Amino acid sequence: MTRFNTEVRTATGRNLFKDKKKKKGAERSSDTPSAVRLGEHGRYQIKSGRLSGEYVARAFPKPPTNARGMIAEARGATEEAAIAALHDVIDAREIRRTDDRRADPKTGFPVPSTEEFVEAVAQVTLSRPQRAMLTALALADNEGLSEGRLASEAGYKSKASANRALASAGLLIASYLSLEANPGALTSEHDGMMFLGCRGQQTSDDDPGNWILHTELREAVLTAG
Predict the structure, then answer these.
(1) In DSSP terms, which residues pair with 59 in a beta bridge?
(2) H helices of 44-158, where?
(3) Domain total for the chain?
C-alpha cells in the first residue's frame, strides 16, 4: 500500500513538472521573433516583423548594394501599422532632403546634399573607371581636371569614351536620387555630367574647360574612400 502511494505521488509529481515546463515554453514563444516580411517603398527595401513583443518595420538600401546600415525605423500596434508609419517616415525624409537642396549658381539645378550623394555612390553600380574618375575629380577640388587628364586617370584611350562613361555615371546617380533636369536642358552626350558638376572657365577655343564636381559630391566620394 505504501509503495503504491509512493509511485502514484511520484508519477503525479512528474506530470506536474511536465505541465510547468510546457507553460514556461509557451510563455517564451510569445516573445519569439516572427518571420521577417519583405517589401519595398521607393528605393528602399522594407523588413518587418515582431521583435521583443513589438511590431517593427525597418528600411534598408535595396540589394545588391555596397551601402550598409538601416535607413529608418518605425513601430506600430500591428505589423501593417508599423509599415505604414515607416512609409510616412521615409516620405517625410525625402521631402526634407528635396527642400534642403541648394541651387547651382550656374545652372539653377538643385544639388543633392552630401548625405544623399554618399547613399547614391554606395548604392549604384559604377565601373572601376567611373569610380576612378570621380575620385580623381574629388581630389582635384575646385580646379577640376581637363578631359585629357581625366581620361588618363581612368585608363581611357580617348576623351570621348571618358566623357561618355562619366555622363553615364551621372545619369545612374540621378536616377537613384530621382533627379530631373529642366526641360530642354539635356542636349548632348555629356548631359549626365550636369548631375555631377559643371565645366570650369574656358581658357581658349580649343579648351572646353575642366570638369569640376559639386562640392557635396566631392565630399561624398572622399568619405566613401
Answers:
(1) 46, 72
(2) 79-100, 114-123, 128-140, 147-154
(3) 2
Same domain (yes/no): 157, 94: no
Is there a domain that residue 20 lies in? no
On whether the pTM is more than 0.85, the answer is no
φ/ψ of residue 204, rounded to 5: -160, 175
Name residue, grid cell 566620394: 221
Torsion sign (Cα): 13, 19, 22, 28: negative
Rounded Cα distance between 91 and 194, Å, is 26
Is residue 15 pLDDT above 60, yes or no? no
125-179 pLDDT, tens per residue?
999 999 999 999 999 999 999 999 999 999 999 999 999 999 999 999 999 998 8
Which own/partner contact pairs does 37-41 have at CB distance under 8 Å and 24+ positions apart?
37/79, 39/83, 41/86, 41/87, 41/90
Shared domain for 211 and 118, answered yes or no, is: yes
pLDDT in tens, 82-107: 999 999 999 999 999 999 999 988 77
